[in-house]
Amino acid sequence: MQFGVFNPLSRAHHEGDNAVEPWMFGPEAEQICKQAIELKYQLFPYIYSYAREAHETGMPLMRALLLEYPDDAETFNAEGEFLFGKELLIAPVTTKGTTTKRIYLPEGEWIDFNDKKTVYSGKEYITYNAPLHTIPVLVKKGSIIPMMPVMQYIHEIEDYPVSFEIFPASENQTASFELYEDDGESLDYQANGYSKTTIECRTTPSEYHVVIRKPENTGYQTPENRNWILKMYLDEKPKTVEYQETTSLEWLWDEKQNVCIIPVPDTKEMQSVKIIKD
């Protein structure tokens, strides 16, 4: 299941009388499988954006490390792990009884996507603690991951908020992501009936400057009443948050996860949010 939920198409199959239904393995396994499936649902905006890239360019959603890091010879030997898009690295545990995973990390810095805190240096092997309930997932520093709430099916909630999980880049660098959306039902996407929204986060010595660009709409309008939720994973609580250069914005600081949570209305126009450091 750890491997399967990160396939573009996830299905549980069996041959003969072999059990595959999660509940056939007891309540613990059922709950763990449920959590894995819910994570895939939460990542739907991210997955769907990369599905559009695959449609346009042929670049796969699941990527061997060497595809993104061809100059790193070690990536040619990195088996048992793969990139999911460019930002996430997945290293599923598929051996019975195994509770750790040896993972090669390419260049850059990589953050544990499970605790959102632990940082690893790239171009090194690490041993990742992976009990049965934990899927080894790492996110590259300088990434933005769009996510949605858990639902029972896609579009159960039409105007659900889109959360941007922001792992800021190093000083004087920018993290960005292009969110792709369409109606999810018709074939209008084949005639470019879609919306694309670019979000950027620039790190400076004094602030994090988030810009949500005006969406590029070509025949599809995004839900009228919804919010963006910025989740900034930071080392310290910021001093304040400014909206559109002049207005203060309500925000929350989760001290346990070191995350600054900022609800922003989706105005369908360009928006600027500045998170001021101490």
Question: Which SSEs are present, and which pair or pack?
Answer:
Elements: H1 27-42, H2 44-57, E1 62-63, H3 65-68, E2 82-84, E3 88-90, E4 100-105, E5 109-112, E6 119-121, E7 124-129, E8 137-140, E9 143-147, E10 162-167, E11 174-181, E12 194-203, E13 207-212, E14 216-218, E15 227-233, E16 240-243, E17 247-248, E18 252-254, E19 259-265, E20 271-276
Parallel strand pairs: 10-15
Antiparallel strand pairs: 1-2, 2-3, 3-8, 4-7, 5-6, 5-8, 9-10, 11-12, 12-13, 12-14, 13-20, 15-19, 16-17, 16-20, 18-19
Q: What is the compact description of this entry?
A:
The chain has 278 residues and is mainly β. The chain has two domains: 60-140, Sandwich (Immunoglobulin-like), CATH 2.60.40.1180; 143-276, Sandwich (Immunoglobulin-like).
Gyration radius (Cα, Å) is: 20 Å
The total tally of domains equals 2
Question: What structural class should be given to the helix and strand makeup?
Answer: mainly beta
Rounded average pLDDT: 94
Largest sheet: 7 strands, antiparallel
**Mass-distribution shape:** globular
Report the count of strand segments.
20
Order of helices and strands: HHEHEEEEEEEEEEEEEEEEEEE
Taking the alpha carbons of the first and last residues, their distance comes to 43 Å
Low-confidence stretches: none
Looking at the overall shape, the CATH architecture of the largest domain is Sandwich
Helix share, percent: 10-25%
What count of helical segments does DSSP give?
3
Strand content: 35-45%
- CATH homologous superfamily descriptor of the largest domain: Golgi alpha-mannosidase II
Oligomer kind: single chain
The CATH class of the largest domain is: Mainly Beta
What's the CATH topology label of the largest domain? Immunoglobulin-like
